TrEMBL record:
Ranges that cross the membrane: none
Domain EAL, chain residue ranges per copy: 24-283
Part of the intact protein present: 425 to 708 of 708
Provenance organism: Saccharopolyspora rosea
Protein name stated in the entry: Bifunctional diguanylate cyclase/phosphodiesterase
Length: 284
């Protein structure tokens, strides 16, 4: 493997990089069996209305209970699953699991039930079977299509071929909500947004940093966020602020007109039972 550079030296062999690559390779090789064995699970985090603090939606966030390495967050394995293509199966599993859970909230809370918001990887958005799979899972779980939201990043949605957009249009016609995740971190063509079947913008948590404390709110951050919210509203979209950690951020976003917030201030990602209690506690 480590090839000589022509002078008889092992110049390309970097043991640290190599060990890391081996570890990554081993991890990705273990994922299919882990999926079979049920080592993946989903945590849930509420999207909270900034006016009445009711639970509007719930985001599904996948985790891996690895037998040796412990709990792994998605940052450790989603990119690997994208590379190997396993993301299509893993993503379908997450979608089914999340919809099953949301169906229970639909039964428990009726009209007050939140929608479930599920992340879609780029590769899933380009999967020709996407629409059929979503329809099948909605049918199988009995979840109302309007209680499902799919989150895509700007790069998954912008400047792509027509097929993924056709799929999103078909999903939108079924009544499924489409959200753009981490908005503001990519290179969106804002004018292009009006031609997309999108219902919600989720403003990336990085914009919350400048709004952390009421006294030293960064005026530039505040104006950028205000402009994003105005733009979204002009396009008829709702807005969720991600990464809300302080009261000052929640208050500021409410003033700006942002409908919902998500973040540690309200709740960390947690079990479905915790979510049910959280919804119930805000109904009274
Ligand atoms: P995301 O979709 O933007 O999800 C929000 C992330 O922010 C989550 O990280 C959540 O735990 C974290 N977060 C929530 N509130 C706060 C806060 O107040 N402060 C801070 N600093 N962070 C907060 P997590 O669970 O580690 O997920 C990371 C990313 O992995 C997600 O970002 C999403 O892009 C991806 N991901 C998660 N689940 C799935 C999945 O089922 N499929 C795919 N394709 N991607 C997923
Ligand atoms: Mg998300
Ligand atoms: Mg996000
Ligand atoms: Mg993210």
């Amino acid at each position: 493997w480590a090839k000589a550079d022509g002078k008889g030296q092992w110049a390309l062999f970097d043991p640290v990089r190599n060990a890391n690559e081996v570890a990554q390779f081993r991890l990705s090789a273990k994922m299919p069996a882990a999926l079979e064995r049920g080592e993946f699970y989903v945590d849930y985090q509420p999207l909270v209305g900034l006016r009445d603090f009711g639970v509007v939606g719930v985001e599904a966030l996948v985790r891996w209970a690895h037998p040796e390495l412990g709990r792994l967050g998605p940052d450790k394995f989603i990119a690997l699953a994208e590379e190997t293509g396993l993301i299509v199966q893993l993503g379908r599993w997450v979608l089914r699991e999340a919809c099953r859970q949301a169906r229970k909230w639909q039964d428990d809370f009726g009209a007050a039930a939140p929608f479930i918001s599920v992340n879609l990887a780029v590769r899933q958005s380009r999967d020709p079977n996407l629409v059929a799979h979503v329809a099948e899972i909605l049918e199988e779980t009995g979840l109302e299509p309007s209680r499902l939201q799919l989150e895509l990043t700007e790069s998954a949605i912008m400047g792509t071929a027509d097929e993924p957009l056709d799929a999103l249009r078909a999903l939108s016609r079924m009544g499924v909500r489409i959200a753009i995740d981490d908005f503001g971190t990519g290179y969106s063509n804002l004018a292009y947004l009006r031609h997309l079947p999108v219902h919600e913008l989720k403003i990336a948590g990085s914009f919350m940093e400048g709004l952390r404390d009421a006294e030293c709110a960064d005026p530039v951050d505040a104006r950028i966020v205000g402009t994003l919210v105005d733009l979204a509203h002009a396009l008829g979209l709702t807005v969720t602020a991600e990464g809300v950690e302080t009261h000052a951020q929640a208050r500021r976003m409410a003033e700006i007109g942002c409908e919902t917030g998500q973040g540690y201030l309200f709740a960390r990602p947690c079990t479905p039972e915790d979510i049910r209690d959280f919804i119930a506690s805000r109904l009274d």
